[in-house]
Amino acid sequence: MTIQFNDETFYGDFTFKNSDWAIKRFPFPFHEDSYMYSVNMEPHKSYRPGSVFERTFDVDEHYVSEMKDRARVLANDPLRCQSLPHMTLAGWDLVELIMEAKAAEYPDLFELHKDGNRWRWINKPLGIDDTFTFLDESTLPYGPMEYITRQTQGDFAVLDQRDDNLWMDAGMVTTQADWSLDFDIGMNFFEWHAPVPKAHEMGIFVRALKFLLNIQQGQPARRLNWTMTVNPLLDTSPENYHKWGVMKQGLAMENIGEKQHLRVELQTFFRLPRSNALVFPIRCYLISFNDLVTVPKWARRLHRVIRDLPEELATYKGFIDNRPLMVEWLSQFDDGTPTSDGIWPDDD
Amino acid sequence: MSKTEFPPSITSRPVYGELEARSGSGHLMIADAEGAEAILDLAKSVDTGFWAKAHIIYIPKKTGTKFSGQLEELGASQYYAGPSYEAAQGRIRRALQDCHMGTQVYLSGTESLMGQAMAEATAAGIPHTAIQTEHRGSTARRMQCVHCKGITEDVTTDPFECSHCGLSLFVRDHYSRRLAAFQGVRVDAEDPGNIPEKVELFK
User: Are B29 and B39 in contact (CB under 8 A)?
Assistant: First the structure.
């Protein structure tokens, strides 16, 4: 299948839009009618052709526009991409992982030709055709992590593993749910999760870390996470919160369906072969409430999840003030019919 | 008594202990304000030979001469008192660079002093097992504005004004050891102009 790439924006006039194809394959995160934290990991194996779980790194209709948005954010704030000096090798590992996966899984879009360490990388959607020497930084226009993540959807945290912990020592972060790489860089797993309520007491992070430390090469894992965003804004950074926070005001019954978006992160975890680092891509998918309720099961379920969510979580996820309005609007689409197990729409 | 019992806190905040004399090839002590008291307490339990290998770097801040005389009389082979952390920074870096294997580092006083000196010591390659900390005195916080990245020292209220960009910021309980600072985030981002009364949270 050839993807038709959208020409759209994720800021300003917000022309972002999901096609019917993108709506159908949206990674709806709720497998039941309620939500609580869990270490909801599963193997990142190819699953359900056409879904976002089919490929190692999903490429969709938003690819080209998301990469333009990333370049815009980086031009405004270069500190969104940082790599501590010892992480360069992990950056090369990531170059290899992404190039090999994309070239194998999207041969009509990406090509990788190797002649020893001399590699030629062709990225057709972005019009890139570069030849470089693998492991020689001077042959790329950016550091290796920055080079490849300017061409790959989703944020990337590259985690060094030492002292039985994971350390956020490199990253490309422009589509984040309100956290700052510049502040968190160098922190360990518990430190960077410090602001998350409840989960520490529930032992979530201890178990999650144990799982992640043991991820092996060739056996990646994944999970979904979610939050809410007003307008299809990819860059909900703390750095710019003083500019986008105000958008949460002014929601009403008439416009919430169009403006309110469910924001879902497909998080994956890969062990890197040379550095033994762990790469943690965080891919953001946005869907407007209007588009989401075209799937009746999702509409009913989202209503119940948001209505019953513990207050602390609604506060942490930043939508406590708008929750009553969300629930009122969503209730129109919930007739009380039971919903089937699992995240997929009922029509297949 | 200048000791503070911190409430159970977030996992990104360092936990401070009590300084104790350890055997080492040298002793680098960096303190500010009431942090001097931690060194004076430690001095009660060491023999005189300890000070021959010691270097004290002290920033009295508002305590003026209250402790500086007593510190100087301990007889460290090197004693320095300076007007601010910034002024002392070059000396601190040099002292860390000159440390030999087995040097013990002692940090005491405000979180700001300990955090910054800890970051310098780690960058200089001092193993964390050779660094001790003890909090004394003010619980004022060193804050980084997440928006403009400017650092505001000695923050005692929540919210407070960023000393660089002027935004009113609330104090997020999130601490970066690299920056030695807590995170400040615009308090009225969602409702511009609606700034809550300042509350004195830290002294």
Answer: yes
- C-alpha B186/C-alpha B189 separation (Å) is 6
Contact A292, A228 (CB under 8 A): no
CB contact A294 to B (< 8 Å): no
C-alpha–C-alpha distance, residues A232 and A225, integer Å: 17
Query: Are B12 and A192 inside 8 Å of each other by CB?
Result: yes
Contact (Cβ atoms closer than 8 angstroms) between residue A27 and residue A266 = yes
Please indicate whether, in this complex, the C-beta atoms of B186 and A180 are within 8 angstroms of each other: no
Q: Tokens 């001092």 sit at which residue?
A: B126
* Token pair in block for residue B163: 């000393």
Distance from CA of B13 to the nearest CA of A (A): 8
The structure tokens listed for A27 are: 């990674």
Give the three-class secondary structure for A191.
Answer: helix
Cβ of residue B177 closer than 8 Å to a chain A Cβ: yes
CB–CB of A266/A285 below 8 Å? yes
- The rounded distance, in Å, linking the Cα atoms of A277 and A169 is 10
Q: Which of B144, B185, B189 sits opposite A246 (nearest CB)?
A: B189
What count of other Cβ atoms lies within 10 Å of the Cβ of residue A49? 8
**Which runs of E-coded beta strand occur in A252-332?**
260-271, 278-288
- Quick check: bond before B159 cis, omega within 30? yes
pLDDT in tens, chain A (348 residues): 589 999 999 999 999 999 999 999 999 999 999 998 887 899 999 999 999 999 999 999 999 999 999 999 999 999 999 999 999 999 999 999 999 999 999 999 999 999 999 999 999 999 999 999 999 999 999 999 999 999 999 999 999 999 999 999 999 999 999 999 999 999 999 999 988 888 888 888 999 999 999 999 999 999 999 999 999 999 999 999 999 999 999 899 999 999 999 999 999 999 999 999 999 999 999 999 999 999 999 999 999 999 999 999 999 899 999 999 999 999 999 999 999 999 999 864
Residue B15 neighbours by CB under 8 Å, 6+ apart: none
